[in-house]
Design a protein that fits this description.
Blueprint (H helix, E strand, L loop, with lengths): L11 H4 L8 H15 L8 H21 L2 H16 L3 E6 L4 E4 L6 E6 L5 E5 H6 L2 E4 L2 E4 L7 E6 L6 E6 L3
Parallel strand pairs: 1-8
Antiparallel strand pairs: 2-3, 3-4, 5-6, 7-8
Helix pairs in contact: 2-3
Bound molecules: zinc ion.
């Protein structure tokens, strides 16, 4: 299982800090810079740090093995999509149903929705921005092509449930 289950584990893309539509060049250069930082030979004498960096190093190597090869990457992408469809989606939520909390400057904000476990589903404006969604007050725009409704899966802060947030596009 790539995602879901009890504990969320990072995707190979996240390990290499890549977008899932990254080009081969981007994957290679991110792999190279990541491997320089985490190479076990470069770790200090602190045992714990060494253990952690070896683990990271292996994850980076593995990510590169999968993503660096177009055929294994295509397989991995398929698995990733399939596993996401299996995630437990508790509810479909419209944007208007989300609570909103703004910072004092009124620039950054977080949207939240209560989960049945007592915690909340959260998404911040910067996370939305990374996904190409910008919210200015109540106006929602989207960069990129295609004026389709966007759906985002938001995980709960405590349990494994998720909601599907529907974002209309003007
Ligand atoms: Zn929950």
């Amino acid at each position: 299982m790539l995602l879901g289950g009890e504990k969320y584990s990072k995707t190979h893309y996240e390990i290499l800090s890549l977008k899932e539509d990254a080009t081969h060049e981007e994957i290679r250069s991110s792999y190279r810079s990541s491997i320089l930082i985490f190479h076990p030979d470069k770790s200090n004498n602190n045992c714990e740090g060494e253990e952690k960096s070896r683990e990271d190093f292996l994850k980076i190597r593995k990510a590169w093995e999968i993503l660096g090869d177009p055929r294994s990457r295509a397989n991995y992408d398929r698995e990733l999509r399939a596993s996401r469809q299996l995630l437990a989606v508790a509810d479909d939520v419209e944007l208007e149903e989300m609570g909103i909390e703004q910072d004092s400057e009124g620039e950054a904000f977080e949207l939240y929705h209560p989960c049945r476990c007592g915690d909340y589903y959260w998404v911040s404006s910067s996370e939305l921005g990374e996904m190409g969604v910008s919210l200015n007050g109540k106006r929602i725009g989207k960069h990129g092509l295609g004026a389709v409704e966007r759906e985002l899966l938001l995980p709960c802060g405590s349990c494994s449930l998720k909601i599907r947030l529907k974002i209309p596009v003007n």
